[in-house]
Specification:
The chain is an alpha/beta fold. It has one domain (about 5-200). It contains five helices and seven strands, in the order ββαβαβαβαββα.
């Protein structure tokens, strides 16, 4: 990541140095996951769509501890693998929006709140913000080589209300709290980096620019 682009990492010290942690990353372009893997202060095990595990990428992704997930179903194996990562005191990476989109945390799936409440692991919000310029882009869907990419880590927070309840009502309330905290972090990250929605990189040539 440092060889191809110019990452500027802010707030990495906020990631707890030990114990289970969930990194919640906005997802608007293809390099979000690799960028966080390359700049986070601890190794990260991401839940990655199963379609990415093809050809030589399959053994590579497995070898560096990434987790395969079927986004079209309730993938019990992936859920167990993710919880096992947290039980071992490691770092789980999640794109809470579920798939690459606007990157603004506006549409969150329930998985993040479930993992946080079930494991008790704190959530650290992460905003990846990059350039929207088209010139110099050798590969569609990737920002121009040597352009600056900002990776901003936020303060860790608990998703649950402290009661330990895992009812649907409790999980819905946790998901609402999580969405509010992630949106607030993204707004603060844009303020700190001087980026606006229109200035951030779009995940593809036909997608609207977003953080």
């Amino acid at each position: 990541m440092y060889g191809l682009w110019k990452p500027r990492v802010l707030g990495a010290w906020r990631v707890p140095t030990a114990g289970p942690v969930i990194l919640a990353v906005n997802h608007s372009h293809n390099i979000d996951g690799p960028m966080v893997m390359g700049t986070a202060p601890r190794p990260v095990h991401f839940l990655i769509k199963r379609e990415a595990f093809t050809g030589p990428l399959d053994p590579f992704l497995r070898g560096i501890g990434q987790l395969k997930v079927d986004r079209e179903s309730a993938d019990r194996a992936a859920i167990s693998d993710a919880l096992a990562v947290l039980e071992r005191g490691h770092v789980l990476g999640i794109f809470p929006e579920g798939t690459r989109g606007e990157g603004d945390f506006s549409s969150l799936r329930a998985g993040l709140a479930y993992f946080a409440v079930r494991s008790g692991a704190p959530i650290v919000p992460v905003a990846v913000l990059g350039s929207a310029r088209d010139r110099g882009r050798l590969v569609p869907g990737l920002p121009p080589l040597r352009s600056r990419i900002d990776v901003v880590f936020g303060d860790p927070f608990e998703a649950g209300d402290g009661s330990g309840k895992r009812t649907r009502t409790a999980l819905d309330a946790a998901a609402t709290r999580v969405q509010q905290r992630l949106a607030a972090h993204l707004a603060e990250a844009r303020r700190l980096t001087g980026r606006t929605t229109d200035e951030t990189f779009s995940g593809g040539p036909h997608e609207r620019s977003a953080g």
